[in-house]
Specification:
There is one protein chain. By secondary structure, this protein is of the alpha/beta class. The protein is built from 13 helices and ten strands. Strands 1, 2, 3, 4, 5, 6, 7, 8, 9 and 10 form a ten-stranded mixed β-sheet that branches. Helix 2 links the parallel strand 1 and strand 2. The longest helix has 20 residues. The chain is elongated, with a radius of gyration of 23 Å.
């Protein structure tokens, strides 16, 4: 009889230990921080929606959505400052390898999902400059005043990388009498509208309300990125080939080739499994709402959450996607 009671005690202990270890029964988080991109842009809108959903799931937790950037978000995850961050195709690949702009491989970085939301590189320049190609800037050493997004994000990285393909560095532009201004897109719009910059460069949503505002206020042109340059950028950094459709902002007279990137929701290995599970669940269950957030998310497809992801998924995301049959 004693042995039976002892066995029952052991089994009860094992069940209790299993229950405590279960991610579903783990203590809920006290706070969750999501870092996106610029205020008003597609990434921020998505992060804000997820924040709302997580607040419903964890009513007692402090949910914070902050404006960040694709470059900075990776470092913030590494530091444990944030729980979830958005980044781009090229920056995700660079972070995993520890290549520029990162100084080390981020081995604790894990994926929650491919949020798609394709962004495209724009080279928007004053029509009065008479430019027909990006190459002319380098050949003529033109003293242009540029504006792009803050260095915390992929737009500025893409701008500098494109210049490098033409053998142009930022100091070269300065020596020619030009300048690259790194600001919020809204500030770039103000400078362009008032004629204080000649060109707005870098990638953002397709279409972009900021570039649309510039096109409505000034006479501007959009310049295509040559196919050989696109191919080099794809090979070096993993960018996507993207087309700016004819008629964009009423200034694109034909389809314009360019390059761009998708967006990824990332976390770190230390994030509790259930929290990541619930975040992946929100990405899945709110597809209809997500498609209405921004034109770049209009084709958001839950089946693509698990496609073309260069790094490992967090176990919480794996558990959810397996339940939905998206992963085996």
């Amino acid at each position: 009889m004693r042995s039976i009671r002892k066995l029952g005690s052991v089994l009860s202990g094992l069940c209790l230990a299993a229950a405590l270890a279960s991610p579903a029964l783990a203590a809920p988080p006290k706070s969750i921080t999501l870092s996106a991109g610029a205020l008003g842009q597609n990434w921020y809108m998505l992060a804000a929606l997820l924040g709302e959903e997580l607040k419903k799931t964890y009513s007692g937790a402090q949910i914070t959505v902050m404006a960040g950037g694709g470059v900075a978000n990776v470092n913030l995850l590494d530091q444990g400052t944030i729980d979830f961050g958005l980044t781009s195709t090229d920056l995700y690949a660079a972070a995993l390898k520890g290549t520029d702009p990162y100084k080390k491989a981020h081995k604790e970085l894990m994926a929650v999902g491919n949020i798609q939301a394709v962004s495209v590189y724009y080279f928007m320049v004053e029509k009065a400059k008479g430019l027909k190609s990006i190459e002319e800037v380098a050949k003529k050493k033109m003293p242009l005043r540029f504006c792009t997004f803050r260095k915390a994000g992929p737009p500025a990285v893409s701008a500098l990388r494109l210049f490098e393909e033409y053998g142009v560095k930022e100091q070269d532009i300065a020596q020619w009498g030009g300048k690259i201004n790194y600001m919020d897109w809204s500030d770039c719009v103000s400078l362009a509208r008032d004629g204080h910059v000649d060109a707005v460069v870098g990638g953002t949503g397709l279409p972009s309300p900021f570039h649309a505002e510039i096109a409505n206020a000034r006479q501007v042109d959009l310049l295509p990125v040559p196919e050989p340059i696109i191919q080099k950028l794809r090979e070096k950094y993993g960018y996507l080939r993207v087309v700016i459709p004819k008629g964009t902002y009423n200034i694109a007279k034909e389809d314009l080739p360019s390059f761009g990137w998708a967006g990824y929701m990332l976390t770190r290995a230390q994030t509790p499994e259930q929290t990541v599970y619930d975040t992946a669940k929100s990405l899945y269950e709110n597809a209809e709402r997500i498609r209405k957030l921004h034109s770049s998310l209009a084709t958001y497809d839950v089946k693509k959450l698990v496609t073309d992801v260069p790094g490992p998924f967090h176990p919480g995301a794996v558990r959810f996607y397996k339940e939905k049959g998206l992963l085996k």
